[in-house]
Design goal:
The protein is of the alpha/beta class. The protein is built from eight helices and ten strands.
């Protein structure tokens, strides 16, 4: 079976095509600028350079969040459009879950952390005792200030949220834990591995059931709420 995976959830994006035993092709993207103009031509180039067509793809997979609000929306829309045309199953991936696949070998609790801006992080907790990450705490948005209360034993921390912890938290917090190397993107190998893993667990969905994993408002929604509150104060 062949899987196509799209991740546009962060500053660095990845599009990959692979099987259970190999990666046929992958391209990394700088997603700090406009997402959509880059994603579609990149997918077309990847298919041609891999000698494949969309009709050869058996499974579609996309990172649905948490991460960049606009990036997630574009990746989800792209995969949903392809799935509608080809009638293929979609495996939704949580970015925090994929990060945990880096650490399948550890017996310590694994905390995956992603920078959520405004001194906040997205995080989830995993047990990897069976050589596969099992989520034991659901994805959550939390402030850096409140995160320290969530760690009650020596653990492994991974993701770009670790950099925020080291910058804004007391040194005692991260001195007692193992900080895994920082990864700028979710590697193609792990995206493909996670896609097949969750497909085998029957976590695939139809296109109309694919939902982004937004854990906070977009900037536009947040600004609108602020404007409404200010308007109500003026009215009172």
């Amino acid at each position: 079976m062949i899987i196509l995976v799209v991740d546009t959830s962060g500053d660095k994006g990845t599009i990959a095509i692979g099987s259970r035993s190999r990666i046929f092709g992958e391209i990394s993207l700088d997603m700090t600028m406009s997402h959509l103009p880059k994603t579609i031509p990149t997918l077309d180039y990847l298919l041609h350079s891999s000698g494949m067509s969309l009709s050869q793809i058996d499974i579609l997979s996309v990172v649905t969040g948490p991460g960049s609000w606009s990036g997630i929306r574009i990746g989800v829309t792209l995969i949903k459009s392809i799935a509608h045309v080809l009638n293929k199953p979609i495996v939704p991936l949580c970015s925090l879950d994929v990060l945990a696949f880096h650490l399948c070998w550890t017996h310590m609790p694994v905390y995956t952390l992603i920078d959520a801006a405004r001194k906040q992080i997205y995080y989830a907790i995993y047990s990897c005792k069976q050589n596969t990450p099992v989520r034991i705490h659901e994805p959550e948005l939390i402030s850096i200030q409140n995160f320290s209360s969530k760690i009650d034993c020596p653990s492994v921390l991974i993701g770009n949220g670790v950099l925020l912890l080291q910058k804004h938290s007391e040194k005692e917090l991260y001195n007692n834990h193992f900080m895994a190397p920082y990864y700028h993107s979710l590697p193609a190998m792990l995206l493909v591995k996670a896609g097949f893993y969750f497909y085998d667990k029957n976590f695939s969905v139809h296109a109309h059931d694919l939902i982004p994993l937004y854990l906070q408002q977009s900037d536009a929604e947040r600004n609108f709420d602020i404007w409404q509150k200010q308007d109500l104060k003026k009215g009172s």
